[in-house]
Amino acid sequence: MMNLKINISNFLTLLASSLLFLTATSSIKAQNGNNAPQKSNFKNRIHIGGGLGLSIGNGYSNIMVAPSAIYDVNDYFSTGLGLQYSYVDSRDYFESHLYGISLIELFNPIPEVQLSAELEQLRVNNTYTQFSPEIKDDFWNTALYFGAGYRANNITVGIRYNVLYREANNVYSQAWMPFVRVYF
After folding, report:
1. Number of helices and strands (H, E) in the chain?
2. What is the pLDDT of residues 83-101, one digit of tens each?
3. Per-residue burial over 122-131, b = 16 or more CB atoms within 10 Å of its CB, e = otherwise
4. How far is it, in rounded angstroms, from Cα 115 to Cα 108?
5. How far apart are CA 58 and CA 107, in angstroms?
6. What does the pLDDT read at residue 44?
7. Which residues pair with 53 in a beta bridge?
8. For residues 13-24, average pLDDT
9. Predicted confidence band at 132 (pLDDT cuts at 50, 70, 90)?
10. Gyration radius (Cα) of the chain, Å
11. How far apart are the C-alpha atoms of 87 and 146, rounded to whole Å?
12. Alpha-helical regions (H) of 27-101
């Protein structure tokens, strides 16, 4: 059964990666020599954004930085890359560093609705400090999110679901995750 789950997970990751690649490249058209795009047009299609997070409580800290950049292929599709770093510390229990990269695909069927697919690959370094000696758990985690959100100008608020979620990985507490995206 475990082998079947791993194979399904690998299949879904491969399928999603292929779909994301095809989505990003399907809108590219041959350019007419008389209609050469201007450099400023390319610059206007690039948007920088991302997320910042800070959560501090009694013996708990969570700091997250996640910059990203997207390119508007056309009025409906955008594709991009994101980076992520998170530091989590729960005093006398564990300390965690997560860092990685993600491939982002956005589809806007109408201006107010944004559908998304994001393939994320994180390196996870957990240290469980409540044990003596400390236990270290280092591994790679792959997440594949499908999401939907309401978009107003450059801000999107929504929810996404990680179809590759596994509770045993100790990365995220659940498969559903709300999000706020801001791009300038």
Report:
1. 2, 8
2. 999 999 998 888 999 999 9
3. bebebeeeee
4. 6
5. 40
6. 92
7. 64
8. 50
9. confident
10. 19
11. 25
12. 39-44
Report d(CA 84, CA 100) in Å as an integer.
5
Residue 163 burial class via C-beta count within 10 angstroms: exposed 0-12, middle 13-18, buried 19 and up:
middle
- Rounded CA separation 21/26 (Å): 8
Q: Which amino acid is at 181?
A: R
Q: Please tell me whether residue 143 adopts helix, strand or coil conformation.
A: strand
Q: Which of 119, 118, 53 is nearest to 88 (CA)?
A: 53
Q: Are 104 and 66 in contact (CB under 8 A)?
A: no
Whose CA is closest to 16, among 118, 149, 141? 118
- From 153, 100, 89, select the one nearest 127 (Cα to Cα): 89
Nearest to 162 by CA among 148, 179, 174, 149: 174
Q: pLDDT confidence of 3, banded at 50, 70, 90?
A: very low
Instruction: List pLDDT tens digits, range 139-184.
Output: 999 999 999 999 999 999 999 999 999 888 778 889 999 989 999 9
pTM above 0.85, yes or no: no
CA angle 116, 175, 17 (to 5 degrees): 45
Instruction: Look up residue 26 and give its two tokens.
Output: 């399907």
Token output for 170: 């100790």
